[in-house]
Amino acid sequence: MYDSQKKEIYIKNELTIINKKIAACTACPLCQGRNKTVFGQGSINSGLMIIGEGPGADEDLQGEAFVGKAGQLLTKILEAAKIYRKDVFITNVVKCRPPNNRVPTVDEIVACNSFLESQIALISPKIIITLGNTPTRWLLKTSEGITALRGKWFKWRGVELMPQFHPSYLLRNQSRAKNSPKDLTWNDIQDVKRKWDEISKGGSPISNE
């Protein structure tokens, strides 16, 4: 127990150091237009990590990941599958908002990559969900799009990784018909919950409260 407590303190301290480095970062032009950097937030112990593209307007103002309309929808999707935001760690591939919510450039992602790599290494997730094209293509080193990749399991450095539609895409596609983006996302998040429960046998699964 003492060792696990020491480990948790170490991880929290290291994440705090990374957060401070991100706040002071001027490695790419995105720093020039930001209000706040967005480090990410959530549990460092659950083993489930969600990686999006980058902060939007609400995130840029509040300094937290996925707090706008897309974030609110993400919360609903997770809770419908009995996964709760307090039990997952959520971050983005870039920590500053791209102008007009455009897709981050490769140079911008590269500039932020050491921060993302450090977060993943410290949190040591068992499952990663990538939301949309940008994090999916970056981590899997592929040019394939999210439509072809979503709902499939990939092994990424020994971690179970599933790409899913970004919630902002779901906001633009409101249909709930069979095989619509929302319907497919519901199937995907249930699959993640099943996988997590399977991995967690003998451990502590994500809350079912």
TrEMBL record:
Pfam families: UDG. GO terms for molecular function: 4 iron, 4 sulfur cluster binding; metal ion binding; uracil DNA N-glycosylase activity. It comes from the Bacteria. It is an enzyme of class 3 (hydrolase). Keywords: 4Fe-4S, DNA damage, DNA repair, Hydrolase, Iron, Iron-sulfur, Metal-binding. One of its GO terms (biological process) is DNA repair. The keyword Transmembrane does not apply. It catalyses: Hydrolyzes single-stranded DNA or mismatched double-stranded DNA and polynucleotides, releasing free uracil. Its EC number is 3.2.2.27. The keyword DNA damage applies. Residues 39-190 form the Uracil-DNA glycosylase-like domain. Gene3D superfamilies: Uracil-DNA glycosylase-like domain. Belongs to the uracil-DNA glycosylase (UDG) superfamily. Type 4 (UDGa) family. This is Type-4 uracil-DNA glycosylase. It comes from Aminithiophilus ramosus.
